[in-house]
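Morning. Coffee machine broken again, so started the prediction first thing and wrote up yesterday's gels while waiting. Chain of 466 residues, entered below exactly as on the submission form.
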Amino acid sequence: MTVRTGRTPAAPVTAGVLGVLVGLVASLTACGAGSGGSGGAVELTIAANAIAGGKNAEEADWIENWVIPRFEQAQRAEGTEVNVTFEPSGVDDEQYKTRLALDLQSGSGPDVLTLDGIWIGEFAEAGYIAPLNEVAPAAGDWDGWEQIPEAVQSLASYEGERYGVPAGTDGRVLYYNKRLFEQAGLPVDWQPASWDEVLSAAEALAGLDGVTPLQLNAGTAMGEATTMQGVLPLLAGTGEEIYTDGQWTGASPGLTETLRLYQDVYGGGLGDPLLQQEAQGRDKSFERFAEGTIGILAESDYFWRDVIAPQTGLTPMADRDEDVGYALIPAAAPGRGLNGQDFVSMSGGSARVLNQATSHPDLAWELLAFMHSEEALTAFAEERTVITPRTDVNERVLANDPMLSFVAEEVLPLTSYRPGVAAYPQVSVLLQEATAAVVSGDDPADAAAAYEEGLAEVVGADHVTG
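Came back before lunch.
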């Protein structure tokens, strides 16, 4: 159940790279997908960048020790002998991505495979994966879709077609320190309705000694966290997306307005500009929030689960549940967000897809659907208390965690996802550079213009809309 946040996505697998590496395919994978086994048993394989005792170990353990034996038993009870094999990996995401691309290009590889959500469009454009309904028509009638919000389904979709099933996701919110809010005379049940209200709260916090009012990730040192926790949700709050219908957003009014907010924060003394330039700046922002010296922080639910968790966090807060509040990210003004929304968010996550070359598409779909059933996802989530794509599972396993329930119930229905196309990683860096320029004192309009110029070089001027 791989949910990756706050990192730079793996580099795109280019045609040149594939041309050099395609000769290695035979040594990387067995011939064909879903071949028949000895004694008439059907052979199916699952691949994920997860391995017992290593990377994403929880997912690997769940697949090997829960999914596979139960699926085989269920099929045997229906008269079908099937042997499912897990192909683990514990490598860098780029290596995993390249291996899958080579396999799929050659018409081989695993029957069910996990992809980062931002790879879906790239793999679809390359012809490595096909719409789910084309591979297994029965997928369109799956009752599980009713439990996955449409916004979350878009994680595994491209150009209006489902290519897979979301495997896990997350959401961005505004965290705030209730003790600092109380000292500044602010409500501890805070929910801002606009950017102006966020800035007003930050200005009130500025009156407290030793407190940085607002941490909004910026610059290249913060990497993908700048784009996901900062630029993209703010841009969504202006009613714009970074990529729509084959066109990239350039120096648009929304992007300029987004960069102007960065100017208000860092030019107005509400944020610490030096923190954005430090190699470990994001980690330091975590530490400072946990110490009670940052008032408001834009972050994902990862921060709650893995950073400030009282017993197991990287920078634990003993009184987290009492001292930390969380709020939806407001649009620039009510009704100005995407689709006329009052609040916005961004999410990441992974998806599982079918190999279009599988020899057993119907049975491979049954395996994929089984992995995303209420029973299976409950078994996974109960071990670690994570947000799943299914509403029914979240209602059960998150019942004792109000923050994660808040994300599942309030954030996921209105969230957005990064474009799953090959140029995105380069575009993300350009956005990070634009915020860095503003934090350093450049005019937002000039920074937006420089971004658009770089964008045209990356994607072509014909694919840029100002």
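The radius of gyration is 23 Å. Going to sketch it on the whiteboard this afternoon.
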